[in-house]
Amino acid sequence: MKKEAEQAEVNIGLIGHVDHGKTSITQALSGKWTDTHSEELKRGISIRLGYADTVFYKCPDCKGAEAFSTKEKCPNCEKKGKKLRKVSFVDAPGHETLMTTMLSGAALMHGAILVIAANEFCPQPRTKEHLMALKISGIKNIVVAQNKIDLVDKKKAEENYKQIKNFLKEFEYEKVEIIPTAAHFGTNMDLLIEAIEKNIPSPKVDEKKPVKMFIARSFDINKPGAKPKEIVGGVLGGTILQGKIEEGDELELSPGINNKKTKIKVVELSTAGGTIKKAVPGGLISVKTLIDPNLTKNDQMKGNVLGKIGTVSDPVSEIKMKLNYFKREITDKKNEVKQGEIIVLSAGTATTIGTIVSLKKDLIDVTLKVPISVDKGQRIAVSIKDATRWRLIAYGEIQ
After folding, report:
1. What is the end-to-end Cα distance of the chain in Å, rounded?
2. At 41, is the pLDDT very low, low, confident or very high (cuts 50, 70, 90)?
3. Is-same-fold flag (212-308; 316-398)?
């Protein structure tokens, strides 16, 4: 009998400014290069969210950080290590034009590694925006990787370290550990793993809560030319926020197909390592369904919420929010929105464009171009147009 795959316990985001080494650190920790899309390889930047799983081990004989690795056999003494946990990395793009993709990724994270290059001034623009995205998502558990330490001398590294400390203090993350790394050489990955184990715990699982899952990807896994009897239903990918999903469950998608809540049946569950019978919060999972695969190809179902029938909020085309502008400016430009202004909203893994139809102090009414499923009190990231890009300025709380 084929052994059931193991689900990762926690999702750890890799965030930070473009070209600071997020994908390189993901590779150093997991062995996987997450930029696999043809355009990503051509441009040398992450465009889609990247995913990679690995297992952390601790050697029973070695002391300190040297005891930690991603190898079952200790790289130092070759003794068999104790398995700590399986983790899943979410590599978010750092380019300014891909901020909405990063916000979708933040909705899936339980903690994060903020990657800051030692050879550039800190903070860079996206470094600030990514840290604000974590605050919107309520993510408090982070570790900083001061990467590319091999490209600077000791004096420059110390200056950069002080810049990082001041930046973290400004955004109320002053107690965060900072680990110097050189991802291309695998330098200090043991220290980074030790810091992750100390500071980013796995989420607590309560299987009795009604299941809720954010959909971040969707696929058609059928090969071209497949015969009718060989065709399988569409696949949904994402992370469970609460509860559990078991093979055979009947659940509900919202906004669903054609913006109508849609019932689905779970045909199969799987992780990067293979199939599982039950899925809980932690790690990234895929759900094979009986949905027409033509409706799930190319991430068409991204932004949906999957949950127990009768518990998922109906899709809405109008929302009322209380705006919370960031206390400290991300740039020196004004953050205030205006009536009639077009804004971009990021709710969970959903992204939609809205128009402000009413504005009273910090309360706004917004009509949406594409319906979303949200709950009262949920935090929504708000971005406004700034020249050629969307700039993150606030978060709204659904009223």
Report:
1. 51
2. very low
3. yes
